[in-house]
């Protein structure tokens, strides 16, 4: 009987693992099946042509712009905020409120952020429909993610490291910079990777703040179209699933490349000190 | 200076002490509170220079808390209040807020090795580097000297660049001692440094402590009464936040004056 239970549990665990991996492979496989034939040098590096058949290079550039600008703004603010909350702030009511607020922010649908961005960044700050307006909106979207994961990462740093460092006559800042942050780096990095996914996957908020101009952006103050927005519009306008799938493949490759380089950079960063 | 002498006299009246060695740390009427709860009551001790002073007592008696007042590690805990006086070399350590200077002078080794996830070399060089020493040759010399001082140089000299966390528990604890020595402190505090070690590693650390007392004033908290008897010159017996008895170690372990001390050292409680 106990043996049977054990086998049943094992089968369930194996089954769950199989289902999740199978879903992933099905989706990726389907994308490749539908879209791979569209992929060519001209498709990736060619300029977009409104009469069809053009490439997606402007959207790739726009997507990378939005990722980089959002991360450049959100990462330092997010990490510093988490450090303040975890290391410096007196753990009381104010901190609880801030923490609760950041947690609530992660649950808000992105269209709301998009509307806020359209009103505040686009209209009030007069940035217009632009990459910068979209990036600032995305910054707000990923900020809670970065704060939360960084805080969790700081929690995993053993208190004994702090004590050990401070007992050697170091300042709090030195301890933070030399011992605590490097130890928390893997966790912080996973927050950044999650953020990249969130930014790349976003479409509603970008649609409302960056617009849909399908051309190479002149600067970050131009209106432009990211890959996800493009994929949505292409499917809606032409119903060409294959093209949308090809864009999906490109997106997956971009995310993969960014994740790998983020991991690589953090390893470098860690080695430099050790 | 005059004040210091009178303080010594005052302390000596309280604890009959063989005032042969020079006083290093003078604790006068120390009280410590965690919020509302008082953890130390009127502690007065005269800790001698270049001797090993052991603090013994049952769990929760305040010996670790007391140890942490000497380098102000208790400052890290919210709501800790201290009254009374602690002077090291005649300087009131609670008078100024320069805990950095205090902690470079008063090093600390913890119960469990808390080496950083760095190489052996970088662990030992960490403190000096944070003081601004950058010169490679100076650091090299300091690291070697410190590792020799902690009697572990021969074991690790060929793998200084490898992770310190790959060493055995006993080796790690001696690297912790080396890391402390590298700061060139006067006083080294040890909080049950061998409680997580096997008997052979414990023996090595004990030998090391005995050698180190010619250069440093050592205050060690220990649960192990045999250890206190083996390595210390003076022993203070703590109970419920008070010092019950403080005297030469051989007096504490052979002819204690207080019944509670006798009960504890003979193993009747604790």
TrEMBL record, chain A:
Domain of life of the source: Bacteria
Annotated keywords: Cell membrane, Membrane, Transmembrane, Transmembrane helix, Transport
Subcellular location(s) of the protein: Cell membrane
Transmembrane segments: 12-33, 56-85, 97-121, 127-147, 179-200, 241-265
SUPFAM superfamilies: MetI-like
ABC transmembrane type-1 domain sequence ranges: 60-262
One Pfam family it belongs to: BPD_transp_1
Bilayer topology annotation: Multi-pass membrane protein
NCBIfam families documented for this protein: 3a0107s02c
Protein family: Belongs to the binding-protein-dependent transport system permease family. CysTW subfamily.
Protein name stated in the entry: Phosphate transport system permease protein PstA
Organism the protein comes from: Lysinibacillus contaminans
TrEMBL record, chain B:
InterPro entries according to UniProt: AAA+_ATPase, ABC_transporter-like_ATP-bd, ABC_transporter-like_CS, P-loop_NTPase, PstB-like
Domain ABC transporter residues, every copy: 25-265
SMART domains in alphabetical order: AAA
Keywords carried by this UniProt record: ATP-binding, Nucleotide-binding, Transport
GO molecular function, one term: ATP binding
PANTHER family named among the record's database cross-references: ABC TRANSPORTER I FAMILY MEMBER 17 (PTHR43423:SF1)
NCBIfam families named among the record's database cross-references: 3a0107s01c2 (TIGR00972)
Protein's name in the database: Phosphate ABC transporter ATP-binding protein
Source species of the chain: Lysinibacillus contaminans
Gene name, Swiss-Prot/TrEMBL: pstB
